[in-house]
Write a structure and sequence with these properties.
This protein is mainly alpha-helical and about 450 residues long. It has one domain. It is built from 16 helices and five strands. The strands form two sheets. A three-stranded antiparallel beta sheet has the order 3-4-5, with helices on one face. Strands 1-2 form a two-stranded antiparallel ribbon. The longest helix has about 35 residues, at about 335-370. The radius of gyration is 23 Å and the shape is globular.
């Protein structure tokens, strides 16, 4: 049994557009035109549309003094995304189970194509030209991983070690392909998706802790090496205890967990050396942006100034000094939250975060009320993707997280990311639309 309250999977439920026979013997539509969407979560849909509208307004404000304005593309692609979401919502999401491997293969092939024929920009090779547009396959790959993991875990869950490892292997391949583009931020999103879905599929929490422990060990080694190195050994010993009680091999599992965490410091150095120079600089600057005020630290410093300048009620639309004078680089994409905070203040920022909270709440409710485990896992995968992106994006604008290039869902300028988020909502709305109908 999963943590969701979903029932067993049924493909033979009645269509939302069924025809009924009247007392006179005539066949009439049962619920009219909107019958196909009668069980949609309209509050969820309205919330994402609201964020898209606010995002377009904020993007326009950041581009007023930058020459040609193409902010309207955000709304155009938002409209296209909304149409796709409504079309997907009336389609049976359960049919995706039989397409899991074609979707997964296509996902990996598209990521390989980026390395072969992709176009480079801003230190990475992430885009493919399609019909005159720049498409970022790594954004759509998130959905491919969510669908594949949901199809793998919906029958047996992740309560056994073989299914747990198989799910990790499925996630690792596209994650590594994105990492070598290089796109560190998006590759981390794959990890967040896997962790969220594995937890929902009844994976042992100790396994999840052991999974992320090498990363924590590498960070602790770098931080405590000159301060309190025994703290790093204490962490490795604690992971050994977790391995002893959660892995099936007891002593071998515990010793293996200790060994992996002790090697975490060296592995961290290897991974660090394989990062691009700009990625290393982003991580170093995050710790002390004032050390390079006119270089890599400039963006973080100006971001904090813009957010602080908004105070309680903000300086007003088109009146933010940092925004209108273009002091914040990449403000219309990754740093769009700074424009919201400066021109609408703390109150406006909290309203935006409140809408994100409402979206996450609706996703959890849909996951709980889904009629089968596959639909429940789809909703949780989308939830993990959105939560991680919002936390990292907002965190980096206030200097609480490294700058990783992760956009703010539905608000940052970016056609591929916007369409991906709308398609994800369409999948979740399909889960809501085909859930078990309530009877009174």
């Amino acid at each position: 049994m999963f943590k969701s309250a979903s029932k067993l999977f049924r493909l033979q439920d009645k269509s939302a557009t069924s025809i009924r026979t009247s007392s006179q013997g005539k066949r009439q539509p049962s619920l009219g035109v909107l019958a196909a969407w009668r069980q949609l979560d309209w509050l969820l849909l309205i919330s994402v549309v609201t964020l898209t509208i606010c995002g377009g307004i904020a993007i326009r404000s950041t581009q007023l003094n930058l020459g040609p304005i193409d902010w309207w593309q955000h709304w155009i692609f938002g409209g296209i995304g909304l149409g796709l979401a409504l079309w997907i919502a009336r389609s049976r999401y359960a049919l995706l189970i039989q397409w899991q491997w074609p979707i997964y293969i296509f996902t990996n092939l598209s990521l390989l194509a980026v390395k072969l024929v992709g176009q480079s920009a801003k230190g990475g090779q992430r885009w493919i030209g399609v019909a005159g547009f720049q498409v970022q396959p790594s954004e759509f790959a998130k959905l491919g991983v969510i669908i594949t993991l949901a199809a793998l875990l919906h029958t047996r869950g992740a309560s056994t070690l073989p299914t747990f490892v198989r799910a990790l292997a499925v996630t690792a391949i596209p994650g590594l392909l994105v990492f070598v583009q290089p796109d560190l931020g998006t590759s981390l999103v794959f990890g967040a998706i896997a962790l969220g879905m594995l937890y929902w599929a009844n994976a042992n929490p100790g396994w999840l802790l052991l999974l992320v422990s090498p990363l924590i060990s590498a960070i602790l080694f770098a931080v405590l090496m000159k301060v309190f190195l025994p703290g790093w050994f204490i962490w490795a010993a604690l992971m050994g205890i977790v391995g002893y009680f959660t892995l099936p091999w007891k002593w071998w599992g515990g010793l293996g967990a200790i060994a992996v965490n002790l090697l975490g410091g060296e592995v961290g150095q290897i991974v660090w050396n394989h990062l691009q120079p700009y990625q290393q600089q982003r991580l170093v600057t995050f710790l002390n942006p004032e050390a390079d005020r006119l270089g890599w630290g400039y963006q973080l410093i100006q971001s904090r100034i813009a957010i602080g300048a908004g105070q309680l009620w903000g300086q007003g639309l088109h009146h933010g000094t940092q925004t209108q004078l273009n002091f914040v680089p990449e403000q219309h994409t990754d740093f769009i939250f700074t424009a919201i905070a400066e021109e609408f203040g703390f109150v406006g920022s909290m309203c935006v975060l409140g809408v994100f909270w409402l979206i996450c709440l609706r996703l959890v409710l849909i996951a709980q009320n889904a009629k089968d485990n596959f639909g429940s896992l789809l909703a949780i995968g989308v939830l993990a993707m959105i939560v991680f992106q919002v936390i990292v994006n907002v965190g980096m604008t206030v200097n609480l997280a490294p700058v990783t290039g992760i956009p703010l869902p539905w608000m940052s300028y970016g056609r591929s990311a916007l369409l991906t988020n709308f398609i994800a909502i369409g999948l979740v709305e399909s889960v809501a639309n085909y859930r078990q109908k309530r009877k009174f």
